[in-house]
Amino acid sequence: MEEVPQGCPGTGSAQAGRGASCQGCPNQRLCASGAGAAPDPAIEEIKEKMKTVKHKILVLSGKGGVGKSTFSAHLAHGLAEDENTQVALLDIDICGPSIPKIMGLEGEQFVEDNLGVMSVGFLLSSPDDAVIWRGPKKNGMIKQFLRDVDWGEVDYLIVDTPPGTSDEHLSAVQYLSAARLDGAVIITTPQEVSLQDVRKEINFCHKVKVPIIGVVENMSVFVCPKCKKESQIFPPTTGGAEVMCQDLKIPLLGKVPLDPHIGKSCDKGQSFLMDAPASAAALAYRRIIQRIQEFCGHHQPKEEHLVGS
Amino acid sequence: MLRAQGRAVHQCDSGWVPVFVDQEQSISLMSVGFLLESPDEAVVWRGPKKNALIKQFVSDVAWGQLDYLVVDTPPGTSDEHMAAVEALRPYGPLGALVVTTPQAVSVGDVRRELTFCRKTGLQVVGVVENMSGFVCPHCTECTNVFSQGGGAELARLAGVPFLGSVPLDPELTRSLEEGRDFIRDFPQSPAFPALSSIAQKVLSEAPARLS
C-alpha cells in the first residue's frame, strides 16, 4: 500500500487528484481520472468470499480498556462450545492485536477444530514489534484479511476492532457492505465517560447503516472475594448502560460483573467460561451469547443459493 | 473530565484560544470535543483528516508560555501518534509517559508502544501502572482485579523508569465524571499519594531525562 500525502482530500472527493497536496502523489493521475471514486472491486470479491459465512458480527467500543477483546474472545469460545458450530474470530486491531494472547495462540490459527483465529499479531515475529502504520496501510491489511483468507464454511465470523470510529471501522463496514453484516455489539463500562463514547459509536452505526444487536455493560459490579459484599468500581454516575439503552431504545444485552479471574484466564490464554463455569460472570456471558444467537437467528439471510448443489 | 464540556473555543490574533479549566488559569485545554456540535456526535475521520487537525492543535493554538504540554492520545501506534510526534518534535524537548494496567494482555500491547517510542526517538520518561489493585471499602481487603506486577516488570524489561502504581478508586472515577477537583477533594484516597508521587517524579526527573 502506498503512503498518501498529508492533506489528501480523499480518493472519492471532487478534489481528488486536483488539490495542492496531490502534487507528487503516485496516485495523482489515477485520482484525477475519476477512477479513484469507483467502488473498490474488493467489495464484490469479499461478498463472494463471505457467501460461506452465515453470520457476521462486529464488536465495537467507544473507549479502550472496556473489555472488548475479552468479550470477542469469549463470544467466540461460547459459540464454539457447540462442536457443530464453526466460528471464526478476526482481530482487526492492527496496532494492539491482543486476540492471539487472549486465545492462547502463538502462531497456530486454530484454538479448536471449529474455532479459527486471524490477527496481524500472527504476522509479527516478536512481541515487541510495533505496527506503526497510517490508515491506508491498515485498510489494506483489513482488505487482505477479508478477501484473501480462506474462511470456508463459517457459522459466525466475529470481528474484533480497536476502540473508536476511524479507518479500521470504516474499512470493515465498507468491505463487508455488500456481504451483509448481521450487526454490531457495543461494549462499555458503567461510567458516563465511557457511555459518552458509546453514544458516538451508536451514531457511527446509524451513519453507516449497521444494525445494532445491543450493548454489553462490562465491569458492572465487583464482589469482594473476602467479605462477598458488592462495590461499584466504575460507578454508573448517570445510570449506566441500562439508562442509556432505555433512552436510545437499544437492547441492553447484559451486564458482566468484574471478576479478577477473567483477567487471569485471558493472561493464560484460556477460556474463562471453562475456568469458572458457575461464576456470575460466566453465567452473564452465556446469557448475552444466547441473546446474540437469537438476534442472528431472527435475521437469517434468505437462502439465495442452495449450498452443495 | 475537567468540567469544560460545552465551552466554546475563541479566535485571537495568534490563533485559537485554549480553554482554561481553573480559576488560576494554570491549566488550559484543547480538544476536538470543543469543536463538536453535540457530545454524541461521532468523529468518523480517516487518518489524513485527523493528522491535519493534530497539526493545527500544535501550531494554530495560542498556548502562550507553558511549563508543560501534556498530550493525551488514543490507544495504539498509528496516525494520531505519528502526527503528534512529527508536529511536536521541532518544539522539543519531548518525552513519553506510558500507561499500562497490570495484566499481561495489557502489557503485551504496551510493549509495542515502547517500541514505537524507540523507533520515533521519543524519550520514555517512565511507565505508570494504572488500576493497580482495589481496596474493598467494606473490609479493606485489597484485590488485584486486573492481575499484578505487569507495569514494574515491563519497565524493567524495557530499561525505563517505573514511576509507580495507581490503585483503582471509584471515588476518583466519580470525581472525574462530575468534574470535581480530585486532588482537593480526596487527600485521603489511596490514589492520591500514588498520583502525587508520580507527578513529583515527572517534575524532578523529566527535565534531566529530556535534555
Automatic annotation (TrEMBL), chain A:
Gene Ontology biological process terms, A to Z: iron-sulfur cluster assembly
Keyword tRNA-binding: no
Subcellular localization, as worded in the UniProt entry: Cytoplasm; Nucleus
InterPro entries with a match to the protein in the record: Mrp-like_CS, Mrp/NBP35_ATP-bd, NUBP1/Nbp35, P-loop_NTPase, YlxH/NBP35
Signal peptide interval: none
Chain residues that bind [4Fe-4S] cluster 2: 224, 227
Protein name as it appears in the record: Cytosolic Fe-S cluster assembly factor NUBP1
Gene name for this UniProt entry: LOC111156035
Automatic annotation (TrEMBL), chain B:
Cellular component annotations (GO), alphabetically ordered: cytosol
Pfam families: ParA
Protein name, UniProt field: Cytosolic Fe-S cluster assembly factor NUBP2
Underlying gene: LOC111156059
GO molecular-function terms, A-Z: 4 iron, 4 sulfur cluster binding; ATP binding; ATP-dependent FeS chaperone activity; metal ion binding
Keyword presence, Metal-binding: yes
GO biological process, one term: iron-sulfur cluster assembly
Keywords: 4Fe-4S, ATP-binding, Iron, Iron-sulfur, Metal-binding, Nucleotide-binding
Origin species: Enhydra lutris kenyoni
Domain of life, source organism: Eukaryota
Residues that span the membrane, as ranges: none
